[in-house]
Amino acid sequence: MQRLYPSPVETLDPDELTAAYSVPQSGSWRHPWWLRANFVQTLDGATVAADGRSKALGTEADRLVFRLARSLADVVLVGAGTVRAEDYSPSTQPVAIVTRSLNLPADLRLFAERQPEHTPPILLTTSTAAAATPPWLADTCTIVTCGTDSVDLPTALRALSERGLTRILCEGGASLLTDILAGDLLDELIVTVVPQLLGATSANHLSVRPGGLDPVPRMKVRHVLEQKGTLLTRWVREP
Ligand SMILES: NC(=O)c1ccc[n+]([C@@H]2O[C@H](COP(=O)([O-])OP(=O)(O)OC[C@H]3O[C@@H](n4cnc5c(N)ncnc54)[C@H](OP(=O)(O)O)[C@@H]3O)[C@@H](O)[C@H]2O)c1
């Protein structure tokens, strides 16, 4: 993997790559947490392949950075739509799922393949949904209520940070990212661009918010890496 920006390096070694994605020191954070999102997209901005998942977009470089970003996070934050579409596996790493409905089928691998060593998923949900939690879900997950009829994202992020989960990695999807951006909660965006054109639509784009964002966050590029035609970019919100 080569670094194109800031200072060109022909071959980054694993330590340099890890350093390139290190989370800033907590003293510089805007909040008690650092919220980073990681997305892969095509040249024309599609984040979902024809099969309704993002896996087919992934390249070796994307998968490397996906794993690295996870290894640098305390918790993975993800929308229930992505968990359902991508059928997330159970993990020893904490995974927090944002869900208004708690509509999470028991046959998802996250639940069906769960072993004792796996960490119970954290469900960030509403008190309305929580009041009707199916018993099997209550036994399998940690349920955190963050609002009555909608999930208040700052409350959800605070709840994670109060559990010591301060380095938060959002893995999507677009709907959750859009709400994060609308709340001006994003600190960092990792965008991997793969050399494909698929045809972006409002249904598969990174973020779709009619009327735009207010305030409009300004992002500053931290690095641009390249491997076999995949561009790996990292952007940090300017104060
Ligand atoms: N290219 C990439 O890097 C990438 C990354 C991630 C996902 N994806 C793809 O994106 C697609 C999924 O994206 P998506 O936008 O449909 O789904 P999403 O954002 O993952 O999930 C949407 C669902 O999450 C819950 N949710 C999200 N934001 C919420 C909020 N602010 N408050 C309460 N609940 C909230 C709701 O769950 P309930 O319905 O349970 O109430 C909502 O229906 C999949 O096809 C996936 O493969 C691509």
Provide a descriptive summary of the structure in words.
The chain is an alpha/beta fold and 239 residues long. The protein folds into two domains: 114 residues, Dihydrofolate Reductase, subunit A (3-Layer(aba) Sandwich), CATH 3.40.430.10; 91 residues, Dihydrofolate Reductase, subunit A. The chain has eight helices and ten strands. A ten-stranded mixed beta sheet has the order 1-9-10-8-2-7-3-4-5-6, sandwiched between helices. It is globular, with a radius of gyration of 18 Å. The two termini are 30 Å apart. The model has no long low-confidence stretch (mean pLDDT 95). Bound molecules: NADP nicotinamide-adenine-dinucleotide phosphate. NADP nicotinamide-adenine-dinucleotide phosphate binds next to strand 2, helix 3 and helix 8.
Quick overview:
The protein is an alpha/beta fold and 239 residues long.
Rounded radius of gyration (Å): 18 Å
**Overall pLDDT metric:** 95
The CATH C-level name of the largest domain is Alpha Beta
According to DSSP, the number of beta strands is 10
- Cα shape: globular
Q: Major beta sheet, specifics?
A: 10 strands, mixed
Please name the defining characteristics of this protein.
239 residues; Dihydrofolate Reductase, subunit A; 10-stranded mixed beta sheet; globular; binds NADP nicotinamide-adenine-dinucleotide phosphate
Helix and strand topology:
Layout: E1 2-5, H1 14-20, E2 34-42, H2 60-71, E3 75-79, H3 80-86, E4 95-98, H4 109-112, E5 122-125, H5 127-130, H6 135-140, E6 142-145, H7 153-162, E7 167-170, H8 174-182, E8 188-194, E9 219-227, E10 230-237
Parallel strand pairs: 2-7, 2-8, 3-4, 3-7, 4-5, 5-6
Antiparallel strand pairs: 1-9, 8-10, 9-10
Bound molecules: NADP nicotinamide-adenine-dinucleotide phosphate (NAP).
NADP nicotinamide-adenine-dinucleotide phosphate (NAP) binds at residues 39-41, 47-48, 52-54, 57, 79-82, 85-86, 98-101, 103, 150-151, 153, 171-176, 179.
